[in-house]
Amino acid sequence: MSAQRFKWHPDARAFFTDLAFIPEKRTAQASIAAQPVSLALQGLADTLGSDTGFCLSDFANLDLSTLSSSQFATLTGGTSGQPKVIARTQESWIKSFHANAKLFKYSAKDSIAVLGSLSHSLALYGVLEGLHLGHDVHALSELSALQQSEHLLRHHCSILYATPTQLRLLPSSARLPDIRLILCGGGTLSDAVRHHVNTICPDADLLVFYGAAESSFITLSDHTTPFGSVGRAYPDVEIEIRDPQPDGTGTIWVRSPYLFDGYLRGNSPTTMENGGWITVGERGVLDENGNLFLRGRVSRMVKIADQSVFPDELETQFANIAGMPTCAVIPRPDVLRGHHLIAVMEGAENTALRDRLFDYCKAENLIVPRQVVFLASLPLLPSGKPDLPQIETLIGALE
Question: Which residue intervals define the domain AMP-dependent synthetase/ligase in the entry (predicted)?
């Protein structure tokens, strides 16, 4: 049987303004520009269902010569460096489209909206899912947060793919009663943002998924998930913790139908494959009910006084402190201790917030940051994640 390919279902319509986009069928494109959205949608209309492997991105002159007709390429988030270009089969996403349709009971009435740029895999996934399954899709990256909210309400959008940052920016004064499902990924969802979403989308199931560009979905969490966990395995995903320490923490390995084929540009020393299993170098622990708890990525781990510390684990914990803004934890070299930590918060200087962070760390027996720095706004990547290299540069300039 031939490999499955994406298609633009005849019932699917695409919107980036109030009017449905009317594509013209032209020659398939291997390299599709992500911006403006009209060109991205036209490129998809030209290419979906063809024998052309493709990549939709902000990068020009990508070498796509090794892509087969049944593959496509996407970019990693690039949180800690240049985004990598990865290849995967179109079928690897199509299988999860059908898994979602079954799991979340998609119907002909559903329409799918995305808030981010189509160069980001989360937004591209949502659009391709809708087009393939025959739903209306709304690509809203060119609108302000207020305009996005108004569009979602006006068009009765029911399913939303978004990052925590994108959800946080939606105006609190609006109500979006037609949203029934929010699939959130690409960062830590704080209690404050969760409360904000529950207020503006009172009838929505808010589900947070954990995964990577290389693995796609790994886990899903909901309101029943234990505190601190990223949830249980997504359908047809197997999770193993290998080489565990005495506390159960080990390397997370995954096997599923959704894995990537390899890197087209760049590589990762922490990504390994073994007999159909893959790891991207993240550490975690599984409880007896299959709930996964993350420690962090090996590539960000540092030693402080001979203790292994994961800055991303601290970022996740800090996000659940009441009133805590977006926060990044940056390690800095330390002659005596190996490293020390700087917590970088978004917003104006706030002594009370700094003290609350210090008190939380002491109460939870966590490594206490040596310093808290406030920035008016944290630099962000197109994916909505903090731009760690840029933040490190800003912190270095302040030292």
Answer: 75-264
